[in-house]
Amino acid sequence: MELYETEEQQVEALQKWWKENGTASLTGLGIGLVCILGWNYWLDYKKEQTSKASAMYDQLLKNVASDKKDDIQTVATQLNTEFKSTEYATYSVLLQAKSKVDQGDLTGAKALLQTLSNQSNNELSQLAKLRLVRLYLATGEFEKGLQLINDVDPKKTAGFSDNYDELVGDLYVALDRTDEARSSYEKAKRNGLQSPLLQFKIDDLTAPEKLESIK
Question: Fewest Cβ atoms closer than 10 Å to its Cβ: which of 81, 96, 100, 165?
């Protein structure tokens, strides 16, 4: 009889607990399941999107290799429309801009690189800025190129500072500011840029009398 009463008390206690907490427990369990299922769905979706974007980027590279300029623009635009959140879409802009340069559409290339230069991916942003400055140099917009470089945050240029210094030198040469150009080239060399072309630029700006004294 004592055992029966003990079991009966346990049942009553369980029923009481369920009455007080059952709804909240089911709700919590339901929310947990929804979160898990939702997260898994999101991961599957992202994986599928990345896979599709990768396939489209491969097609873009083939178009670049075959120099199919119209197809390059079409696929790159599609990538940025349908898979904008992927890295493939961002990289495609560089290829699209290069294709526009090859076609002589420098204005279109500048617009693409300007957009890319504002991306959160620092490496791609810096590459876009460097290419944009080179376009400014090619189109005679020297002061604009210097201003763009001047506006770059030095804290974000790690690994690119020597390239910027060389470009500054190129812009100063175009502006016939030879002393400033030489200083920029030498700064690029100190920052680690080692190339025969850079040394040639430095030597070309060295005064003849200085070269004689070195000899």
Answer: 81
